[in-house]
Specification:
6% of the residues lie in helices and 39% in strands. The protein has 272 residues and is mainly beta.
Length: 272
């Protein structure tokens, strides 16, 4: 009996060892790849100074930094081929108080030590503010006329009439010439405005010697002895934005307080 039990146990143990063992399958854990660092840097900026335009001091010239991947900025003027550092601000602002010509450059850097440089193609030109102006066109834009009439214009500088005086010619223009009159060639009415005087074909240019002074245009019926119609005044420098004259040719307006009388003046030259 004992022998039989031993044989049975041996048979069972042999059967267990011959059965296949289940294999263990492992699943790999997915990993997130490390993104590549883009440290490419590109220096760039936009300059407030327009191409070819001159600016009068005192004024401020600005530049907006539009660089890509930049962490710091160095602004320089290029003087005699050398870079002269003027600012380390992210954006640029420089106050001018004297005439000069500057070329602005930007050196942009990132935290990885990479750098890029760009130079503006717009040269900054700073000049002295104008003191005089040349006018080569006068147009009546608005005027209340009760009857059709020829319109005569007399010009006054700080209250002193200048259009019928004798002055020496200054270069190509002067403040007043020998007895000339601005008078409409035609009889006009309010409905026929604007009216452009025959100018400069029959008149030499006016040089207004002080743009900070008051110039008055007095309008009369037919001539200076006719009935007074109205007057228009102007201080030219009050029309100059930020001290810098606009590109030429340009138009300014002399007018009365209510705006019912308005003369359009064509400016074609500034004098510094």
């Amino acid at each position: 009996m004992l022998l039989v039990l031993l044989l049975v146990n041996w048979f069972i143990s042999c059967k267990k060892t011959t059965e296949p063992v289940a294999s263990i399958v492992t699943t790999p854990v997915a990993t997130t790849p490390t993104p590549a660092v883009n440290d490419t840097i590109k220096a760039n900026f936009t300059l407030s100074a327009e191409f070819g335009r001159k600016y009068c001091f005192p004024c401020t010239i600005n530049a907006t930094n539009t660089s890509v991947n930049a962490d710091s900025s160095i602004w320089c003027f290029i003087k005699n081929g050398k870079y002269v550092v003027v600012s380390r601000s992210y954006h640029f602002a420089y106050n001018y108080t004297t005439p000069t010509t500057d070329t602005l450059a930007l050196i942009a850097k990132n935290k990885n030590g990479k750098a890029d440089t760009t130079v503006s193609q717009n040269i900054i030109r700073i000049v002295a503010p104008p003191t005089a102006v040349q006018i080569t066109g006068i147009t009546i834009d608005a005027l209340q006329l009760s009857n059709a009439t020829k319109v005569f214009v007399a010009i006054y500088h700080n209250g002193v009439r200048i259009d019928n005086s004798k002055f020496t010619v200054i270069g190509e223009s002067w403040e007043a010439s020998t007895i000339r009159k601005i008078v409409s060639a035609d009889t006009i009415t309010t409905a026929q405005l604007p009216y452009k005087f025959a100018f400069p074909q029959t008149l030499a240019p006016f040089r207004f010697n002080s743009i900070s002074d008051i110039y008055t245009f007095k309008l009369y019926d037919t001539d200076s002895t006719g009935a007074f119609i109205d007057q228009a005044t102007i201080k030219i420098n009050e029309n100059i934005i930020n001290g810098t004259p606009p590109p030429l040719p340009f138009y300014f307006y002399a007018q009365n307080p209510s705006g019912t009388t308005k003369l359009k003046l064509k400016i074609n030259k500034w004098y510094n």
